Amino acid sequence: MAFTKELPNYRDLPVMEQTGDRHAWGLFGKEDQLGTINLLTPERRVRAAGLVRRGEVFNLSLPLNMPSPPFAGRQAYRHDIFANDRNSRDDKLDNFYMQASSQWDALRHMRFREMGFYNGLQNEDFEKGALGIERYADHGIVGRGVLLDMGRHMERRGTPLDYMQDTAFEPELLDEALAAQGVETEQGDILLLRTGWMGYYLSRTPSEQAKFPRDLGPQGLRTPGLVSTPNSAEWLWDRGLSAVAADNIAVEDTPGAPERGFLHRRLIPLLGFALGELWSLDGLAEDCANDGVYEFMLVAVPLNLPGGVGSPANAIAIK
């Protein structure tokens, strides 16, 4: 059933007594498995289809073997190609991490302390298939995409990003960039956050790429991204977005600061928010900068993997 009622503002959401954090448990139904993906209604898919003018397609996924080596403790897969007989070939992947490259996080990716995963579910609920990535696959991730090109915006305002530093984008800066692009968000939109970090990383030589820190600890990988405070959660929620995907490692800035907390925990388990990371956005961003059109149809097909914690993004934009 399509979600049709209006969303409450972030500051009107109930509060988790133990921590004071706001949550959306039960808002989409006590048995809900989709969270904000509920906002991708049939009507919004039709609206998105109407944005296709030129038929240009932009692949938003990196090759599966990039970044190399992977970040966050993940490992490279092994790809074996073999002959079944003299006329055919087959292949297999071993040691394949679903979130090593361009990815979606399932709602079972992260819990909020002892209170549980999205909608208060616990580990034992996973045995019944709760919150697996196949829920996204069954529903589909199809809707109006909006590119927010923070990398270009920061250059144009005379404060270009240093991609070896942790730069946190406050909501006011995001609003400034959207206004400069001349685009407004609508409920159900899929926001693509281009920091420019991925392009910077890929422009380095393989030996230079290998020297980037692989972990996300205090001395780990530094990337620009959304500030990891409730302000970002409020900004995303009050715009009614169905998902946000970025070209960095975590959507939020890394390594962030302990006193700010972790935006992942505010978004995934508390709000049921769909997140994507390590996306390839430079080609789409170049086209948007050239024609001044920052909206498009976005289609993503996560793997139909029962119980999956994540999936390759398998995403394209169509303009």
> From the helix content, strand content and strand pairing, which structural class follows?
alpha/beta
Order of helices and strands: HEEEEHHEHEHEHHEHEHEHEEE
Catalogue the unreliable spans: none
Mean pLDDT: 95
Q: List the quaternary state of the chains.
A: single chain
What is the molecular shape? globular
Cα distance spanning the termini: 28 Å
Percent of residues in beta strands?
15-25%
Helix content: 10-25%
Number of alpha- plus pi-helical segments:
10
How would you describe the overall organization of this protein?
The protein has a 9-stranded mixed β-sheet with strand order 1-13-11-5-7-9-10-4-12, with helices on both faces. Strands 2-3 form a two-stranded antiparallel ribbon. The chain has a two-stranded parallel sheet with strand order 6-8. A hairpin with a 2-residue loop joins strand 2 and strand 3. The chain contains 10 helices and 13 strands. The model has no long low-confidence stretch (mean pLDDT 95). With 319 residues, the protein is of the alpha/beta class.
Q: How would you describe this structure in keywords?
A:
alpha/beta; 319 residues
Tell me briefly what this model is:
The chain is an alpha/beta fold and 319 residues long. Helix content is 24%, strand content 19%. The two termini are 28 Å apart.
Produce the secondary structure layout.
Elements: H1 42-49, E1 57-59, E2 78-85, E3 88-94, E4 103-105, H2 123-126, H3 134-139, E5 141-149, H4 150-156, E6 168-169, H5 171-181, E7 190-194, H6 197-203, H7 206-210, E8 225-226, H8 230-238, E9 243-246, H9 263-271, E10 274-277, H10 282-291, E11 295-300, E12 310-312, E13 315-318
Parallel strand pairs: 5-7, 6-8, 7-9, 9-10
Antiparallel strand pairs: 1-13, 2-3, 4-10, 4-12, 5-11, 11-13
